[in-house]
Amino acid sequence: xxxxxxxxxxxxxxxxxxxxxxxxxxxxxxxxxxxxxxxxxxxxxxxxxxxxxxxxxxxxxxxxxxxxxxxxxxxxxxxxxxxxxxxxxxxxxxxxxxxxxxxxxxxxxxxxxxxxxxxxxxxxxxxxxxxxxxxxxxxxxxxxxxxxxxxxxxxxxxxxxxxxxxxxxxxxxxxxxxxxxxxxxxxxxxxxxxxxxxxxxxxxxxxxxxxxxxxxxxxxxxxxxxxxxxxxxxxxx
Length: 237
Ligand SMILES: C[S@@+](CC[C@H](N)C(=O)[O-])C[C@H]1O[C@@H](n2cnc3c(N)ncnc32)[C@H](O)[C@@H]1O
Hints:
By secondary structure, this protein is α/β, with parallel strands linked by helices. About 30% of the residues lie in helices and about 25% in strands. The protein is built from seven helices and ten strands. It has helices at about 20-30, 45-50, 70-85, 105-115, 130-140, 160-170, 180-190, and strands at about 5-10, 30-35, 60-65, 90-95, 120-125, 150-155, 170-175, 200, 210, 225-230. The strands form two sheets. The protein has a five-stranded parallel sheet, sandwiched between helices. It has a five-stranded mixed sheet with strand order 6-7-10-8-9, with helices on both faces. S-adenosylmethionine binds near residues 105, 175 and 223.
């Protein structure tokens, strides 16, 4: 008999942003998995889950951060096999992931690989609060009103994608831009979008930083950082 694989969004960092449903699913699961990078550090999802479950109740799945495609694929397959062993004995396996499990999450890849190996496995998700929602809240930013539109993109999609999003949407959220923050800010500045934009790093985690994006000029960003641009703040708005 095949088990159930549930991706549980645990929020961006603040353990209080785990939903009641997410917590119930984690507590009721036969096995709880968290992703761990090959650096071996405690990841954000694990840190949140550890606030509620004992360390001994958590299984770590190794994911390679390196650019070595073969190493990454090997890790995906090993991780999927590790979960599949439990699913095949009919267990419910929860996989905790930061933010929401359907937004740029390792859960998508894990579920896809598990399904390729065993198409009968049931896959479900429990939504989580995203970093963009948390930053809007912590910075007092209204994301959308009336007929305004929102674009969410990773800066890894490229400079031109950000430029197009800024030109086409009232609110733009940029993920995965921390290591190239200077470029993100330059693109925005060129279109008059820096005014009123907010930068949030390590939301809900030690070392959290929420500041006007303009104050980040000349400073380095961090991987766990998000920028929100709104037409209300923009000089072009
Ligand atoms: C792989 S994506 C994960 C997105 C996540 N599933 C979500 O729903 O928000 C990683 C990106 O999310 C954003 N992010 C996630 N957690 C964050 C946090 N605590 N503070 C700031 N940004 C965060 C950053 O832009 C980071 O580069």
